[in-house]
Amino acid sequence: MPLVLNRTNMVDQHGEAWRPPLFERPDTPARKAIAALRRFLDLQASSIWRDLRVLLPQLRGTVLDVGCGAQPYRPLFSPAVHYVGIDTEQAKAHFGYQLPDVLYFAGDSWPIADASVDFVLCTETMEHVPVPETLLQEVFRCLVPGGAVLLTVPFAARWHFIPHDYWRFTPSALRLLLARAGLTDIRVYARGNAFTVACYKAMALILRLAMPQNQWWPARIVLQLAALPFVPVLLLLGMLANLSFRGSGGDDCLGYTVLAEKKSA
Fold first, then answer.
1. Is 188 exposed, middle or buried (0-12, 13-18, 19+ CB in 10 A)?
2. The model's pTM
3. Fewer Cβ atoms within 10 Å of its own Cβ: the N or the C terminal residue of the chain?
4. Cβ atoms within 10 Å, residue 239
């Protein structure tokens, strides 16, 4: 007889007990304000924004945003940039995102010409790709010689968009995968540290109380009332966690921001 434990077999899980709201395209003042508030409470989004707001305004030429979703970081690019967003044709079914000005593709090949892109942005996407090597091969193919790529990946993050979440990458794995794809000058930066992660986990518990997704409305009201005493704690943790990003990062972190280049001819 097969060996079993008296716990849930996670392989049989096909959905999340709780999911944060989807991102929205920040194309109106109201949505921009909501996105700013979210970044205070969503430390993963906040940590990525902090890095991208420094790097993306410097770019020129053609930018390819891979797995662009709701394009939350598009406002950070200069108007001089030629922006192209692409995503898998399963983006709506698997992740809930669909926009009219996105190139949707099937399979592993992107509808982008060889050596036609100056910069590739790929945020929180590689963990959802069953074979990450295929994504990195496409990055290399599309980049012009001397072009660059910026990836972000989660590390201390829950299993999300179940079952379409396959990987967590260490700096060693990221260096190995990018080098195998032919990319050079690989730099991996931690986002946050152990203190950031502790705040992140505690805030997640409070947010699940404050934003219950139980379909039975009396249960939702009870949970929201139970969350009220913890709101000051949530705000304090948010402030402390955002301050912790000023450090250099640590071995235990929220995720990684990765930069690499395609060697010039």
1. buried
2. 0.94
3. N
4. 12
